[in-house]
Amino acid sequence: MLGEGFLLKQRNLTVESGHIWREQRRFAFRVFRDLGFGKQVMEESIKDEIGYLLNEIEKNNENPINMHELLMPSVSNNICSLIFGHRYDYNDPIRKRLNILFPRILELLEVSSVSTFLPFVYKAMQLFGSSRMTELMSLLHEFESIVEKEVEIHQKDARNDVNDYIDAFLREMHEREKLNKDMGSFSFQRLYSNSKGFFIAGSFTTRNTLDWILKLIAAYPDVQKCVHDEIDAVIGHNRLPAWSDRQLMPYTQAVIMESQRWCCVVPLNIPRRAMNDTTISGKFIPKDTEIVVNFWSVFHDETIFENPDTFDPQRFLSNDGRELKKVEELIPFSYGKRACVGEILAKMELFLYFTSIMQKYKILFPEGVQVSFESTLGINLQPIQEPVLKIVNRY
Ligand code: HEM
């Protein structure tokens, strides 16, 4: 867990520790499993959302299009379905407002991430009234009121069936009250902050990874051709890609894995704290030491990944290209008890978005564009140059 820094003040699952974290994590896992994580129902919901995205691409008539902007509402609508039980239409005023709120929150978190590591920076920013911190607080507050409204609507509906995370949380609170049980860590405030946490943890990471994948695929036409060939052989053109197709598509999976390694959207993990004295690889770590895992150094370690700066999906394939190699050092979703709660959702999204776009289109950079792969580090590593791409029909 974190020290006294900025993110801790948010009090959501990503930054909690001890019994509160354990209780909330177990609960989230159970709810997501019951809602169909990794199953057909989730797959269908993601496919519906992808349908809207493909319509937008189609409307654009092969003109250069900023996929970063288009992916924002699409990917975050998947979290809306999970937490609120519904998506927002692209023209819905709340969707439009969230599209502005999210990137700005991300931008502001870039600066406040310093305060995540250095608690005194956070305190100083509060004390001297940093304007960025004030704006961040106000945007997070606005975001929270959108979540609060959703909770109110759920309460008024008083549904018996559980369709989403809010339903499940309200039911848990209701049952504990009815049975006069200890409320534990369940409260409205926890519901609001966990919901916000899922949006922040689950929208930017997936969207940024897709940004990178699309840029990389435009930059490597040979790789793109192999993906097209595999899609044509396994899926064809007459039906949409399905999650189960991945089992017959090692090359496409290797491209996604290599993109996750190469771009490493979470280069530095959320700071955690050693709960006890411990020793790792002979190094003594005293209790309460803050530990930040550096995923970037693992994914770009040349003793593990030869020529780490080269984008090469083959590294994850057997010599004959038919099988995927399991490389245990590739851990974009982290490892162990705190590993990403949304891993299965994210993997499904990455595979279905990527294959659905590639099935229909060729991805190119617009003519005359000076392509840059430079990145900037906020809470995620994202391309400085957004993926403005020419998306051309294949047939
Ligand atoms: C490509 C997409 C994603 C990547 C690369 C990613 C990566 C990560 C990483 C590295 C962590 C930190 C784990 C640790 O501290 O050891 C994490 C935690 C978390 N992620 Fe993700 N994530 C992704 C998508 C998602 C999605 C879609 C959700 C939505 C449900 C989500 C929800 C969470 C939550 C709630 C945590 C905190 C878990 C805990 O502290 O117990 N993530 N993620």
Task: Quickly list its features.
Cytochrome p450, 395 residues, disordered N terminus, three-stranded antiparallel sheet, mainly alpha, 7% strand
Summarize the structure.
This protein is mainly α and 395 residues long.
Largest sheet: 3 strands, antiparallel
CATH architecture: Orthogonal Bundle
Largest beta sheet: strand ordering: 1-9-6
- Named CATH topology: Cytochrome p450
Level of helix content? 40-55%
Count of runs of 4 or more consecutive helical residues:
12
- Percent of residues in β-strands: 5-15%
Shape: globular
Report the CATH superfamily.
Cytochrome P450
Q: How many E-type strands?
A: 9
Organism: Dinothrombium tinctorium
GO cellular component, one term: cytoplasm
Family: Belongs to the cytochrome P450 family.
Keywords: Heme, Iron, Metal-binding, Monooxygenase, Oxidoreductase
Describe the structure.
This protein is mostly helical and 395 residues long. It has a single domain (7-393), classed as Cytochrome p450 (Orthogonal Bundle). Helices cover 54% and strands 7% of the residues. It is built from 12 helices and 9 strands. It has a 3-stranded antiparallel β-sheet. A two-stranded antiparallel sheet has the order 2-5. Mean pLDDT is 90; it is low at 1-8.
SSE blueprint:
Blueprint: H1 18-34, H2 40-59, E1 65-66, H3 67-83, H4 93-117, H5 119-127, H6 131-157, H7 165-178, H8 188-219, H9 221-234, H10 250-263, E2 272-273, E3 278-280, E4 283-285, E5 290-291, H11 295-299, H12 343-360, E6 361-364, E7 375-377, E8 381-383, E9 388-393
Antiparallel strand pairs: 1-9, 2-5, 3-4, 6-9, 7-8
Helix pairs in contact: 2-3, 2-12, 3-8, 4-5, 4-6, 6-8, 8-10, 8-12
The structure holds protoporphyrin IX containing FE.
